[in-house]
Structure formats: structure tokens, C-alpha cells
Design a protein that fits this description.
Blueprint: E1 2-9, E2 18-21, H1 22-25, E3 30-35, H2 41-53, E4 77-86, E5 89-101, E6 107-111, E7 115-118, E8 121-124, H3 127-138, H4 142-148, E9 150-151, H5 158-161, H6 164-174, H7 182-208, H8 214-270, H9 272-289, H10 292-349, H11 354-413, H12 420-492, H13 520-554, H14 560-639, H15 647-726, H16 732-738, H17 742-773, H18 780-845, H19 849-873, E10 878-882, E11 888-892, E12 898-901, H20 907-924, E13 926-927, E14 931-932, E15 935-938, H21 947-963, E16 967-972, H22 975-980, E17 984-988, E18 998-1001
Parallel strand pairs: 3-16, 3-17, 9-15, 15-16
Antiparallel strand pairs: 1-2, 1-4, 4-5, 5-6, 5-7, 7-8, 10-11, 11-12, 13-14, 17-18
Helix pairs in contact: 6-19, 7-18, 8-17, 8-18, 9-17, 10-15, 11-14, 11-15, 12-13, 12-14, 19-20
Length: 1002
């Protein structure tokens, strides 16, 4: 990790925004942050930790979440922006808290969503997402970060004092050793499960092959043997019949062949004349063919003559081109040689005296350094005069403000005092009146509410009464219809002359008429609704009576206006008192502010006077150092023995020699390039000369060969003409016409040969058949009988053979399955051996043994690296070791190698041991196991060291900064340390009521 920029607002003593530019601060590698105790130096570290982890363990409590102590008292917002690099990636993170007040006046803090930016892109904008991403890229928590990277107050010696188990846990976290623990155990478990699955799969394969046991195979072999014996007996019977059958079959075939041979001999007699013609054509071809080789030879000679002439012409042209190119190359050789001689003369003129040039360069450097230091001396003298003037002004201001402070204190004591008891009494009376008025107002609200309820209940009752009257009329109509329906039922049974059961009359002039039947369920439903409405009316009457009684009680309240009038009088009285009190308080506050300002000014003047006096002393020390360095530079210049110590002379002479040296090098490079070019030209000349000689010999050879080929061609052509005439051919074309193609020749030869062979063969076969028949006779009936019997035996044989084949196939299959099962069992045995090894390995990784082993190795190496630096700082006295409990011990080599516990070390010794441990740890630390740390910050302990140890510690830090390219920061108030660190931040403490802490880059 490498910090780039930090912006702090409202954190602890920083009220207004302060910026730390780490790129500028860390240019020299080692830097410091200095200031008075309580000025806010450690807050810079707190801001970095807060930006990354949203915690400040030093001030936010054990859980790191109490933001109240971290907020500046003059600010309502705490905001931190931090830009840093991890490897090649640039991160930016912003965190912000705002102070707000609830309606009850309670103070609370709200956190704005943090923003995390990676290489210009927002990758997280909520608390949880930012925390997750930080953990992903850092891989360590805030505790491990403050023990190994940024070490705030109280955390510096924590790693030294951690007990063995806690120390090992910390190392596991920061070195990402967890991948060798749970993750490795999980991989082993997965591998073990995979082996189990493979073994189960192989066992299932064996089960899937069925029964292939040795007993099953033996039973199948017995069955196969029985079938083979039956098959052999059948073959014996068939063989006896086949013998007779074959004899008859042989005789039958002989008679059939005799007929075919007689037919073929008759056909051959018809082809005899055609065969004789073919023989004549073939004879003429053989004579012509004898001349074919000489004809081909003559043709090849003609082609060779043409090819040879073409090659000869090509070689002559190439030879001419090469001669021309050779002349050009020779001209180039002469030109380059002349140019090379010219460069050699130029080099002799440009030789430089390098001793003089080196002295001129040193002299230029010394003189420039001398002028710079003389300028520094002049500026420092001006600073001394300015500080002396400032001191005089401060003493005068201090005197004036002291007189003013005494005057304002007298004015404060003379202020009039207000009657507090009378004010408190009036406030109590007003509170009582307010309480009574509130009670009356609440009862008034209750009265209005009751009146509204009564009005609502009366309206509801009236509506229900109307609805009830409607239901009563409906019930009455239904009852009337029901009676008419009963009368109709009776009238149906009336007989003239008999008495009516209703009226007793025997005459029935107007019997009841039929009406539509009535559904009794409607009547029941209406009755239920009527009863419900009557109950509702009773409930409403009860509520109405209760509310009317309560309303009559509330009507008696009529004294609220009197109470309000009395309240107004009391409030006017207390208002007058408060106005007077406010005036007095404002006067008192104004005087207190003046007094506070004066005290603060006096304190600042005193502080500034002390600071200026300190600065004046430092400037005097600087003046002494600058004067000494100026003398040394002048001695260095005189030792060079230059012609003149004028900067212009040295610069011009140095420039002249450097230009000559540069020209010498340029000419030398040209000479080397020309040498290479000249060698290439000479190589090409030699190569072309050899090629010309070779081509000349080749041309002579081709001319001789051409003459020889022409003579041979003429001789062979004359001989062929004479011999062709002797054999009856008119010309070469006539000879070629009688030469047949190989395919046609083969056809003619095959045709003649086939005819001759067939004639001889068929005649011979005919004679042999007649001899073989030997006057025998073929019996067709016996032939048919034998054929039927053999056919039946063959069918039986085929069936037996099929069964035997199937049994053999089954036997082979079972034997194959048995062999496969055996191979699968062997694989299971091999996998079981692997599984045993995995189980042993799994036991080795149980209880995080391997992780603890790695952590112990890391701890031993850290102790070894720390011990090397510790020995260097203590001049070989102390050696750091690790005991069996992973605790650190110190061996005192100056005290008979006595071993001490770290708890017995003094404050300075504890600081040195903690420092070398922290440096060793940070040099080994890689964030997330891959990003090397580039930054280390330390905030503690330098005040416990004497000057000698302080020098050694600074040497070690410088060495680390140089060798490991690490940026190292130190926070301290020690003045001796400030002198030793050239690049630093000065933190000016806050001034109450005026400003917060201020950061300045020196």
C-alpha cells in the first residue's frame, strides 16, 4: 500500500479542511510528522485508519464505533478523503458523519454512504459493500493493520507483547495462510468423496455384470461337452452316407462335364481362321518393335541438343551480367577506402583530454553547490533578522493584552446581579397555570367530541327506526297473505250443506280465492332482522343516555377564560425579567469572550515567543553549518587546480571538450559502419569473381557437349533408314504405324493363347473323362434317396452346431465378465490405497496443524530478520529468539548469553525491539497474499532513546528505505529527531475559538 493524498475535516483537533500530499511528502522515502503534544499529529494516522476501516480504535472505544469523541467541537461534519495505491490500482475512499438534533433536542450522528473508487470507477457506495471490498483487497483486519503497517499510539509494542496463540492467529490472517487450513481440508475432503464415488461406481459395475461365478462357468462347460459328443456322433453317421453320395455325385458330374467338353471343341473349330489372322498382325508388330528403341534414341538426342543450346545461351548472358557487376563493386571499394582514410585523419584531430574534462565537471558541480550554499546563508541571515523583529513585536503585544485582561476582569465583577428566586417562582406559577389550561382544553375537546357523538347517535337511531317500521309493514303483509292462503286451503274442502269450520255457515256464497304460495323462510329472515334492529335501538339509547349525563358534567366548566387572563399577566412579568436577564447575560458573555480572547492571545504570544526563540537558535546552528560547508566547497575547488575558478570559463571549456568528445564518438561510429560496409563490398567482389570462373568453365563444357550430340544424331538417323528398307518398311512413319499398343498386343496374344490352351485342354479333359467313367452307369433313384437323408442330417447338424456356438459364446462372455470383474477389483484395490493416503493426509490437516506449522515458520523468519537489525542497532548485544510457546525472548550477549523475557526490557529497549519486529513484519507482509507493502508508519517511542541509539535507528530506517524502496513515516515531538529528517509535516496546535490544527509541509 502507498498513500497518495489525505483530506481531513472536523476530525478531533482539525476543524477546517487540511490536506496531506503524500507524493510530495515521501519523495525522499523517510519523512516525519512533528508538532507539540496534543497538536493533532496522531490524528493523521487516525484519519487513514478511519478512512479504510471506519474505525479509530484509539478514540472510538473498544468497538471502534463511538463517533462523538472524534468530532471537532466547532464542527457539525466529520469527513475524511483518502487516496492510496495497491500495486498498480488507485483507490479513493470518502467517509462522512454529520451531527444532527432530534425533535427532543437529543444529539445524534448520521453516517452518509461511503464511496469507494477504483481506477476512477465507483465500485461500492454502501457501508456493507465498502467493508466487503476493503476486506477483499486488503485481507487483514484493523487490529492486524495497526500492528504491522500503521502503528498508532498504544499499538506499537502490541505484536511484541502478544501471547503465542494470539500471535499465531494474527500471522495466519496477515499472511493469508487460511488457504492451507480450512480450504486445503475442504479440497482433501472433496478428493476423498470423489474416490468414494469411484469405488462405489466400480462396485456397482461388478454387480451389473450378473452371475459370472466359477460354478456357473463349470456347469456351462459340462453342457457344452455333452452337445459336442452328440454332434460328433451325428457327423460319423453323416460321413458314411456322404461317402456313397459323393461317389454317385462324382459320376453325375463326369457325365455332365463330358457333354460340356464336346460342345466347347465344336465351338473352337469355328474360330480357327480368325486366330491365324491375329498371328500375322502380331508377327509384323514384333519386327517394327525392334526399331522402336533406336527411334526413341534419335528423338531424345534431338531434345538434348535443343536443351543444351538453351542452357549455353543462358550461361553466356549471366557471365556478361556478372562482369558488369564486378566492375561496379571495384569502383565502390575505391570510394569507401578514400572515405575511410579521411575519417582516420579526422579522428586524430578530435582526441580529448578526459582528465581535464572530469576536473571541469567536478569544478562546475562544486562552484554551483558553493553559490547555492552562499545563497542559503544569505536567506538564513534574513530569516534571523525577521525572527528577531517578530520577537520584539510579540513582546509588545503581550504587554498590551495583559493590561487589557486585567481591565476586563474588573468590569465583569461590577456587573448587576438579577433576582433569580423571583424568576423561578414566576416560572413555576406559569407552569401550573399552563397545566390547568391544558386540562380544561382537553375537557373542552372531550365536550365537543361528545356533542358530535350524540348528534351522530340520534341520526343513526332515527334511520334505524324508519328501517324497523318498513320491516314491520312487510311482516304484517306476509302474515295477511299467509291467512288468506290458509282460508283457501279450508275452502277447497267445503261441501254445500255442511258447516264451515271457521264461521259455521252451511251456505258458502264467497269462498276464499287461490293466491300465490308464501315462502316461510322470507318471514323468518324478516323476523330476525326486526329483532336485530330492536336490539340496536336499545344499545343506541343506552350510549345516548351515558353521553348526555357526561355532557351535563362538562357544561359546568366555565373558568378557563379567567385562567388565561391570569396566565397572560404572569407571562408579561416574567418577560420583563427575562429581557433584563438577557441584557446582563449578553454583557457578561461579551466580557467573557474578550477575556477568553485575551487569554488565548497571551497564550499564543507566549507560545510564539518560545517557538521564535527556538527557531532563532536553530537558524544560528544552520549558519554555523552553512559557513563550514562553504569553506569545504572552496577547498574542493582549489584542489582541482583549474586555470580559472570562473563558472563561465569552466562551463565554456567543459562544453567545448564535451562537444569534441561527442564529435569523436560520432566519427568513430561512422568509421566502424564504413569498415563493415567495405568488408561487405570486398566479400561480394570475391564471390562474383569465383562465380565468373565457374560459369566460364561451364560454357566451354556445354559447347563441346552440343557438338558431340549433333554427330551422334546424324549417324543413328542414317542407319535406321537403311535397316527399315531391308525389312519392308517405307519410312519411320510406316514402322510406327505397325507398332501396336500394349493393350492391343495383350488382347491378340491372350486371344491366340486362349484358343490354343482351350483346344488342348478340352481334348485332354474329354479323354480323361471317358477314361474315368470306365463304362459305369449313373442310378438317379438312389441319388435322390441319399440326398433326402443327408438333408435331414444336415438340418440336425446345423441345429446342434448353433447350440454349441451359443454355449461357447455364453462361456466366452462369462469368462470375459469374470476377467473384467477381476480387473475392476484390482482398480478398487488401487483406489482404496489412494483413499488410505488421503485419509492419512486428512488427519495431518486436522486441527489446523499445517497452518500452525507455516505460521511458526513465518514467525521464526520474522524473528531472524528482526534479530539482524537488533544486533546492528545494539552493536551485537541483543539477539531476538522465539520459544516453544511462540513468545519472544531476548538473549544478552554481553551478559553470558543470559535469556530475558521481553517484559523485563526498559522503555527504550522495548521500543527498539518492537521497531525491528514491526519492520521485519511489514517487509514480509503482502496484502491479500500478493500486493507488496510500500509504506510503514510509526507513532511512538522515540523520546525514550538517547542520541546514539536514535542515530542507529535512523540509519536502519534509511537502509530499509534505500534497499526495500519503502516509504517510512515517523510521528514525534522530539526535536533531535526533527533535525535528522529533511522531509516533514509541521502540525500547529488548535487555538480555541479561532482555528483548528494546521498542517504545513516543510
Amino acid at each position: 500500500m502507498r498513500p497518495i493524498r489525505l483530506e481531513i475535516t472536523g476530525l478531533q483537533s482539525f476543524s477546517k479542511k487540511q490536506v496531506v500530499d503524500f507524493d510530495a511528502l515521501t519523495t525522499l522515502g523517510l519523512f516525519g510528522i512533528f508538532g507539540e503534544t496534543g497538536s493533532g499529529k496522531s490524528t493523521i494516522l487516525d484519519a487513514m485508519i478511519f478512512a479504510i476501516f471506519d474505525e479509530i480504535p484509539r478514540t472510538m472505544g473498544s468497538k471502534g464505533k463511538n463517533i462523538r469523541p472524534c468530532l471537532n467541537q466547532d464542527s457539525n461534519t466529520l469527513e475524511v478523503y483518502f487516496k492510496f495505491a495497491l500495486g498498480k490500482d488507485i483507490f479513493e475512499i470518502t467517509r462522512c458523519y454529520k451531527k444532527k438534533f432530534s425533535r427532543k433536542g437529543e444529539e445524534k450522528f448520521e453516517q452518509s454512504n461511503p464511496i469507494l473508487i477504483l481506477n476512477g470507477d465507483v465500485i461500492a457506495d454502501t457501508v456493507k459493500n465498502v467493508e466487503s471490498k476493503i476486506n477483499e483487497f486488503f485481507g487483514i483486519n484493523v487490529n492486524d493493520f495497526t500492528r504491522s503497517v500503521v502503528l498508532p499510539q498504544g499499538k506499537f509494542s502490541e505484536f511484541l507483547k502478544l501471547k503465542g496463540a494470539d500471535k499465531m492467529t494474527m500471522l495466519e490472517n496477515i499472511f493469508d495462510l487460511e488457504r492451507y487450513g480450512t480450504k486445503m481440508s475442504e479440497k482433501i475432503k472433496i478428493r476423498n468423496n470423489k474416490l468414494k464415488e469411484e469405488i462405489t461406481s466400480l462396485e456397482n459395475q461388478i454387480k451389473g455384470k450378473g452371475d459370472c461365478s466359477l460354478e456357473t462357468i463349470n456347469n456351462l462347460k459340462t453342457t457344452l461337452t455333452t452337445k459336442e459328443e452328440e454332434y460328433n456322433n451325428l457327423l460319423s453317421s453323416k460321413k458314411e452316407l456322404s461317402q456313397e453320395y459323393n461317389e454317385l455325385k462324382e459320376l453325375k458330374v463326369l457325365f455332365e462335364k463330358l457333354e460340356s467338353y464336346i460342345y466347347e471343341l465344336q465351338r473352337l473349330d469355328l474360330d480357327k481362321e480368325d486366330i491365324n489372322l491375329c498371328k500375322n498382325i502380331l508377327s509384323k508388330h514384333e519386327v517394327a518393335q525392334s526399331f522402336k528403341s533406336i527411334i526413341d534414341e534419335i528423338t531424345n538426342l534431338k531434345e538434348s541438343i535443343l536443351n543444351n543450346q538453351t542452357s549455353l545461351l543462358k550461361s553466356k548472358n549471366t557471365l556478361e551480367n556478372l562482369n558488369s557487376a564486378l566492375e561496379i563493386l571495384k569502383e565502390q571499394e575505391k570510394e569507401k577506402q578514400l572515405e575511410l582514410d579521411k575519417l582516420m585523419l579526422e579522428l586524430d584531430n578530435l582526441k580529448v583530454d578526459y582528465t581535464e574534462l572530469d576536473n571541469l565537471r567536478k569544478g562546475d558541480q562544486y562552484i554551483r553547490s558553493l553559490k547555492f550554499k552562499e545563497k542559503l546563508l544569505e536567506e538564513t541571515l534574513k530569516d534571523s533578522d525577521s525572527i528577531s523583529s517578530d520577537l520584539k513585536s510579540l513582546y509588545e503585544k503581550l504587554k498590551i493584552d495583559s493590561v487589557s485582561l486585567e481591565s476586563e476582569n474588573n468590569n465583569l465583577q461590577n456587573l448587576e446581579k438579577i433576582d433569580k428566586d423571583k424568576l423561578i417562582s414566576l416560572e413555576n406559577e406559569i407552569k401550573k397555570l399552563n397545566t390547568d389550561i391544558k386540562l380544561l382544553e382537553e375537557k373542552l375537546k372531550e365536550k365537543n367530541k361528545l356533542e358530535a357523538e350524540i348528534k351522530k347517535e340520534k341520526a343513526l337511531k332515527d334511520s334505524i327506526v324508519i328501517e324497523l317500521d318498513s320491516y314491520l309493514k312487510k311482516i304484517e303483509n306476509i302474515n295477511k297473505q299467509h291467512l288468506e292462503s290458509k282460508a283457501f286451503e279450508i275452502s277447497k274442502n267445503l261441501i254445500h250443506g255442511e258447516s264451515c269450520p271457521v264461521c259455521g255457515s252451511k251456505d258458502h256464497p264467497n269462498p276464499a280465492k287461490e293466491i300465490q304460495s308464501i315462502d316461510t323462510s322470507i318471514l323468518d329472515e324478516l323476523s330476525k332482522t326486526k329483532e336485530q334492529l330492536e336490539r340496536t335501538i336499545v344499545e343506541i339509547d343506552t350510549k345516548l343516555n351515558y353521553h348526555l349525563e357526561k355532557l351535563s358534567e362538562l357544561n359546568e366548566l366555565d373558568n378557563i377564560d379567567n385562567l388565561k387572563n391570569e396566565l397572560q399577566i404572569k407571562e408579561n412579568m416574567i418577560g420583563d425579567l427575562k429581557v433584563k436577564e438577557k441584557e446582563l447575560l449578553e454583557n457578561e458573555k461579551e466580557l467573557n469572550n474578550k477575556i477568553s480572547t485575551l487569554k488565548s492571545n497571551i497564550k499564543n504570544y507566549s507560545s510564539n515567543i518560545a517557538q521564535k526563540e527556538s527557531e532563532l537558535n536553530k537558524i544560528k546552528e544552520k549558519l554555523t553549518i552553512y559557513e563550514k560547508e562553504i569553506l569545504e566547497e572552496r577547498e574542493n575547488i582549489s584542489l582541482l587546480k583549474l586555470e580559472s575558478d570562473s563558472l563561465d570559463f569552466i562551463s565554456s571549456r567543459k562544453t567545448l571538450l564535451e562537444n569534441m568528445d561527442r564529435e569523436y564518438r560520432e566519427v568513430s561510429n561512422k568509421k566502424e559502419s564504413l569498415d563493415i560496409s567495405l568488408r561487405k563490398v570486398r566479400d561480394n567482389i570475391f564471390k562474383d569473381f569465383n562465380t565468373i570462373q565457374t560459369l566460364s568453365l561451364e560454357v566451354i563444357s556445354l559447347e563441346e557437349k552440343n557438338n558431340h550430340l549433333k554427330d551422334t544424331y546424324n549417324d543413328k538417323k542414317e542407319w535406321l533408314k537403311i535397316e527399315a528398307t531391308k525389312n519392308g518398311f517405307l519410312s519411320i512413319e510406316d514402322i510406327l504405324k505397325h507398332i501396336l499398343e500394349d493393350s492391343k498386343i495383350n488382347i491378340l496374344k491372350d486371344k491366340i493363347s486362349l484358343y490354343e490352351i482351350d483346344s488342348i485342354r478340352y481334348q485332354s479333359l474329354k479323354d480323361e473323362i471317358i477314361k474315368s467313367i470306365d463304362n459305369r452307369v449313373f442310378n438317379k433313384e438312389r441319388w435322390n434317396e441319399l440326398e433326402e437323408k443327408l438333408e435331414a442330417l444336415t438340418t440336425q447338424e446345423q441345429n446342434l452346431f448353433k447350440e454349441i456356438t451359443e454355449h461357447k459364446g455364453d462361456l466366452n462372455r462369462l469368462e470375459q465378465l469374470a476377467q473384467e470383474s477381476k480387473e475392476l477389483l484390482e482398480k478398487i484395490d488401487k483406489l482404496t490405497l489412494k483413499q488410505d493416503d488421503i485419509i492419512i493426509l486428512q488427519k495431518k490437516f486436522e486441527g489446523r496443524k499445517f497452518v500452525k506449522f507455516l505460521a511458526r515458520k513465518k514467525l521464526d523468519y520474522i524473528a531472524y530478520e528482526a534479530s539482524k537489525r537488533l544486533q546492528k542497532i545494539t552493536r551485537g548485544r541483543y539477539i531476538l529468539t522465539v520459544d516453544n510457546n511462540c513468545d519472544f525472548n531476548i538473549i544478552d550477549a554481553f551478559n553470558s548469553n543470559f535469556t530475558r523475557e521481553c517484559s523485563t526490557l526498559s522503555g527504550g529497549e522495548t521500543f527498539i525491539v518492537s521497531l525491528v519486529l514491526a519492520l521485519a513484519l511489514s517487509s514480509q507482509l503482502q496484502l491479500k497474499g500478493k500486493i507488496q507493502l510500500e509504506f510503514f508508519f510509526l507513532d511512538e517511542g522515540f523520546g525514550t532513546l538517547d542520541a546514539t541509539l536514535l542515530d542507529r535507528v535512523i540509519e536502519i530506517l534509511e537502509e530499509i528505505r534505500w534497499k526495500d524502496a519503502m516509504k517510512i513515516g515517523i510521528i514525534s515531538h522530539v526535536e533531535d529527531l526533527k533535525i535528522r529528517i529533511p522531509r516533514r509535516l509541521e502540525v500547529t496546535p488548535a487555538i480555541p475559538g479561532e482555528s483548528g490544527s494546521i498542517i504545513k509541509l516543510i
